[in-house]
Amino acid sequence: MTTALAGAAAVTMIVAGTAAHAQTPYPTKTITMIVPFAAGGPTDTVARLVAQSMGNTLKQQIIVENVGGAGGTIGAARVAKADPDGYTLFLHHIGQSTAPTLYRKLPYNAIDSFEPIGLVTDVPMTFVARKDFPAKDFKELLAYVKANKTKVTYANAGVGSASHLCGMLFMSAIDTELTTVPYKGTGPAMNDLLGGQVDFMCDQTTNTTSQIKGGKIKVYGVTTKTRVPSLPDVPTLNEAGLPGFEVAVWHGLYAPKGTPKPVVDKLATALQAALKDQNVKTRFAELGTEPVAENRANPEALRTFLKSEIDKWAPIIKKAGVYAD
């Protein structure tokens, strides 16, 4: 073979090899979905339901790994530094939009360090208390916390968590500062509420519905405009005596920045399939939530929504003067 022919053959082999590599089907191995909170919490519950269904569609297992701490920023930072190959995903809630204002120094950019895949669900929140809390309804709850503000303890899942944001808005709305007890995740906070170590908290229906229905905690209201189908007898806070108080916790799915568009698109398609999965819809309904509409479960919808949520929360957090290092 002449030198020219040998060279041409080598180039052909390289091109063929590159093409074959580019066409390698995704995924070919297990995918990890990072949840930046402790196991057993509401975001963890949502993630595990979605991960199982997406894995079925992608024909690869998606394992959920809990990387809690610092209001979700430790898990977020880990994903931001991960290889952008589609094998590390990140499911986070509203905290992705509040972290840029809450934390003075973030080791990542909430928008630029990630590739959005799509919105997942909007979760209502509930005001709940230990089973033997003296107030029988929300009106009595308001009166009690104002009269006992130095004694009442409000639990949350840590700075930047949904329960922290809900509590911050609540204290602002009633113009009363309460003693807050932060935890590393909603699961531990709920355990102490069940055990009577703390008085009350604001938490997502995905974490409270079964406890409410089991009579293990008291419920005083939901934070949505209308009542929640899974808790039809629980009034909205607007009905209960706190007009205009509304908080919904949205969840979004992300990949590290630089993840190839075909991979992101394939993940978005799998997410959309998961949100149509009857088992997921049924379990979501039992937990007091529902999947977002298909036109919100895509990269552009999440990108636009995240930017709008950052703009929405920034002035509220700055006004409250709540920051974390």
What key attributes describe this structure?
325 residues, 2 domains, 10 strands, D-Maltodextrin-Binding Protein, domain 2, 45% helix, single chain, Bug_dom1, alpha/beta, ten-stranded mixed β-sheet
Short description:
This is Tripartite tricarboxylate transporter substrate binding protein BugD. With 325 residues, the chain is an alpha/beta fold. The protein has helices at 3-22, 42-58, 73-80, 95-102, 138-147, 162-174, 186-194, 205-213, 237-240, 261-276, 278-286, 299-320; strands at residues 31-35, 62-66, 88-92, 114-130, 153-156, 179-182, 200-204, 217-222, 248-256, 290-291.
Largest sheet: 10 strands, mixed
Q: Can you identify the CATH superfamily of the largest domain?
A: Bordetella uptake gene, domain 1
Shape: globular
Proportion of beta-strand residues: 15-25%
What's the CATH class label of the largest domain? Answer: Alpha Beta
Average residue-wise pLDDT: 90
Alpha-carbon Rg, integer? 22 Å
Tally of contiguous helical segments: 12
Distance between the termini: 67 Å
Q: Helix fraction? A: 40-55%
Query: How many E-type strands?
Result: 10
